[in-house]
Amino acid sequence: MNVKQQDRSPDIRPAVAGSAGFLPAFEGMRGAAALGVMLTHVAFQTGEVTDTVLGRVWGRFDLSVALFFALSGYLLWRPHSRAARGFSDPPRIARYVRHRLVRIMPAYLVVVILVLLLLPEARASNAQVWLANLTLTQVYTPFTLVEGLTQMWSLSVEMAFYLALPLIAVLLARLRGRYAGWRIPVILLTAVASLAWKYVPIETAAGVHHDNWLPGYLSWFAAGMILAELAVAPAPAVVRIVRVRFVMPIAALTAFAVSVSPLAGPPGLVELHPREYAVKIFCGAVLGFALLAPIALAEPGHRHRILASPAGLMVGRWSYGIFLWHVAILMVAFPILGVPAFSGYMIPVLAVTVVLSLAVASVSYALVEEPSRRALRGWEARKKELGERPSVVHTVHVLPEPRLHGGKAAITTAVTAKKASS
Known about the structure:
By secondary structure, the protein is mainly alpha-helical. It has helices at about 25-45, 55-60, 65-85, 95-120, 125-135, 155-170, 185-195, 220-230, 235-245, 245-260, 275-295, 310-315, 320-335, 345-390; strands at about 390-400, 405, 410, 410-420. The chain folds into two domains: about 15-390, no CATH class; about 390-420, no CATH class. It has a two-stranded antiparallel ribbon with strand order 1-4. A two-stranded antiparallel sheet has the order 2-3. Strand 2 and strand 3 (about 410) form a beta hairpin. Helix 1 packs across helix 12 (about 310-315).
């Protein structure tokens, strides 16, 4: 009997830097995103966001938020992508929630409390403003984005994504093993569908805009999630394209140029037509993917000269504090310089805001953020140690036929050691 054998070529995938572990350039990219958000806010408050070409450019630096969201999508989804292919266990929800809360809330609460108590423009805030800001529900509560904290709408969206991520993981749980290749198409189709979110007729209270809710920005997170899937299971063709020297920079510049054009609507705080909103969001998703892909899909060991430099890592380390504090500091920069808002002077206002934000962010990192994370790591280490340490359990045995000594039954105590369960 002749047996026909069919040769199978092994599934050879290229090695990439972002398949696991810490990427220093992502830390630097986070810092660049924080500075981009600061730049657009300074430009707006100094009156430089206008309908001119340069004014539109300053205004569209608000797409720096897309970088933040894509980074979150990548870093938080990668463990789920690895688990779907059997490279690691699925993330534990309790640990995930603890780490997200400790990463976000301590420094955030400090900013909210100090701004609402000390910033003159925010002192008159009522209980509803306090509650919405303390619970990160500003985008669902009317008129609660107060001076000094207006940028926190994006953190409210980010928190919604944190809460939704475990549910998304459950919905895609069946796409594992040989079906894991379907994960990218499903995520991509969901992202494309979310571009129509502003067309959905939803009645909201005055001062609440449903286009500021998570579904409207899902494609920005999805850009990072798709990149995480590609980093864990790299598609050779995609990796080759990403590694071509100018492909991703051209894609990023093209997306930014389209976002600056009238296709994405006017700059500033104006209501966008659903079509303009979809174009802007699409451009942000492309921008986020195009800027992060060359880092995540680079050859292992590749180090970005600027983003992974000591200065880039420093700004990235302080990026969360920069984001939290820069709007309140911007409000203070005007009286420091003796100039009113919306009257120009963008360069000096930007310089003061950058210097003070870096200083305050460094203090926030040293006194609030890092101690909070260190405390959590210590608590988890102690919990793990207690779970692994043998515990002493005293088991009392009473002899069936007690021997009387002074009218009392003699009781023997056996000491049994067993390993405590975690």
